[in-house]
Specification:
Elements lengths: L6 H21 L3 H16 L4 H9 L3 H8 L14 H11 L8 H15 L2 H10 L2 H4 L4 H25 L1
Helix pairs in contact: 1-2, 1-6, 2-4, 2-5, 2-6, 3-7, 5-6, 7-9
Length: 166
C-alpha cells in the first residue's frame, strides 16, 4: 500500500532520498544542503548542454528531481559558455553561497557520481561527450571511458559514411 496513495510519489521520494543520502556521504549530513547541491549542480550542468541533450537527461531523472532540474530553465540560452572546470565550480560556488560552506568541486564530483550511478551509461556518455575536456575530468573514470568509446565509435561511423558516399 502506498504511503501517499499514489505509488509514483512514493517511488520518486524514495529515489530522491537515496540520491541525497549519497551526496551527504560526500558533503556531510545535512539533507537541505544536499538538496541545494543537487539542484545547483544539475542546473549548471543543464545550462552547459545542447537543448536536446538537456531534455534527454531530464527525462531520465526521478520526477521530484526533474522539477529542480527544470526550475528556471531557459532553453533559448543553451548551451551556456563555460570552458573550464574552474569556471564551472566558481559558478556552482556562487550559487551555493547562501548555504553552509560546501567545497564546490566536491559538490560537482558528488553529483556527477550520483548521476553516473543512476542514469543510463549511454546517456551519461552523451552528456560527458558534450562537455569541455576540463569539465569531463570531474566525472568518474568509467563515465569518461564510456564517453571516449562513444566518441571513437561516432568518429569511425562518420569516416565510414564519408567513404561510402564519396
Amino acid at each position: 500500500m502506498s504511503a501517499n496513495g499514489i505509488d509514483v510519489f512514493d517511488k520518486t521520494l524514495q529515489t530522491t532520498n537515496i540520491w541525497l543520502d549519497e551526496i551527504m556521504e560526500d558533503i556531510g549530513p545535512d539533507r537541505k544542503t544536499a538538496w541545494r547541491v543537487l539542484a545547483v549542480v544539475l542546473q549548471k550542468l543543464r545550462n552547459r548542454l545542447p537543448v536536446g541533450l538537456a531534455a534527454n537527461l531530464g527525462a531520465q531523472l526521478p520526477i521530484l528531481i526533474r522539477g529542480i532540474y527544470y526550475d528556471q530553465f531557459r532553453p533559448e540560452q543553451l548551451p551556456a559558455e563555460c570552458d573550464t572546470m574552474e569556471d564551472f565550480c566558481a559558478e556552482v560556488g556562487e550559487w551555493l553561497r547562501d548555504n553552509r560552506p560546501v567545497n564546490p568541486e566536491q559538490a560537482v564530483h558528488s553529483v556527477f557520481g550520483v548521476l553516473s550511478r543512476h542514469i543510463s551509461e549511454g546517456e551519461i556518455g552523451n552528456v560527458v561527450q558534450a562537455l569541455p575536456e576540463s569539465i569531463r575530468s570531474a566525472w568518474p573514470k568509467d563515465a569518461r571511458a564510456h564517453a571516449k568509446e562513444q566518441m571513437q565509435r561516432s568518429a569511425e561511423a562518420q569516416r565510414q559514411f564519408a567513404e561510402e558516399t564519396a
